[in-house]
Amino acid sequence: MMAYTDRHFRYIMRLFTKRSLLYTEMVVGSTITHNLKGDYLNRILEFDPVEHPIAVQLGGDEPETLAVAARVCEDFGYDEINLNVGCPSDRVQKGRFGACLMKEPERVADVVAAMRNSVSIPVTVKHRIGVDDQDDYEHLHRFVDIVSKAGCDVFIAHARKAWLKGLSPAQNRSIPPLKYDFIYRLKQDYPHLNIQINGGIMDVPQVLHHLKYVDGAMVGRAAYHQPQLFERADSEVFGEPESRPLSAHEVLEAVNAYTHRRMALGDKVSFVTKHLVGLFKNQPGSRRWRQRISKLIQSKSTNFDLAEIYRECFGVEPVSSVS
Ligand SMILES: Cc1cc2nc3c(=O)[nH]c(=O)nc-3n(C[C@H](O)[C@H](O)[C@H](O)COP(=O)(O)O)c2cc1C
Known about the structure:
Bound molecules: flavin mononucleotide
Mean pLDDT: 96
Number of strands: 7
Number of helices: 15
Strand content: 5-15%
Order of helices and strands: HEHHEHEHHEHEHEHEHHHHHH
CATH topology of the largest domain: TIM Barrel
Structural class: alpha/beta
Oligomer: single chain
CATH architecture of the largest domain: Alpha-Beta Barrel
Strand order of the largest sheet: 1-2-3-4-5-6-7
Number of domains: 2
Distance between the termini: 23 Å
Low-confidence stretches: none
Radius of gyration: 20 Å
């Protein structure tokens, strides 16, 4: 998610789940091909080894450009290349990619084929169920039919359509109704494809419900705002009964050490700590925690201890779990 799932958030998310696949923010393919020399690519594509398994999401509509971009990402060590066919923002539409490509499945197929030819890691597609007046299931079916023939066998479908004009990206994530039944039907029609569902999924029990019908579930906003709600994903979704959620103390110790390590490399304190605001939600003291973290972000302080801040806000040692 743009401006949210950066490397620092992903590091924090990994403290809660080791097995879930994490995604980068969308990177425009031509941004990569225009910056093949110099340090900029390192800044946007480098990640910490703990972030594996990790998919890089690319945006674009030119097969040659995306083929080169995909290869660069494979060299950086990503586990999967994901193509964005879901974003309806004006900026993305101006480039004629994102959700508007739902109207051009042949073009998406060409892009997928070019990327698959240039890398050996999986190439997957994140898409909508339709755009504008594409209300019926047949459009979605046709899209998946054409793109799967280019060799894509993993589809992550945001279960609502997008309006290309008239709604903001945020409205396009809430106003068009969720149609989970379209995605379930897709799985029935294409049992050999890996069909994953996205949109409005709030926690692990809801993930488990969808997994009765499809192969995977992608969680966006809920995972960002309350990553701790996914601390049971490894045991309950991935079947690792041994995996034990970290205590608040362990989480804070890890994030504290990571933040100081990143600051020594030149990052601002806010780069990491801005992602901590949603921790400990719904606990007595969580309002103080939010205020204290906001103050820390503004202070540019280098001398802090997150466990100490926790004690100040909650009046106890951070011994229990985060959620
Ligand atoms: C701030 C923000 C940025 C997003 N950026 C991207 C993006 O870069 N690529 C993408 O495929 N989806 C993006 N999305 C959409 C989410 O991936 C997801 O499809 C959508 O929020 C619905 O899922 P959710 O209800 O679990 O959040 C973004 C969503 C938000 C809230």
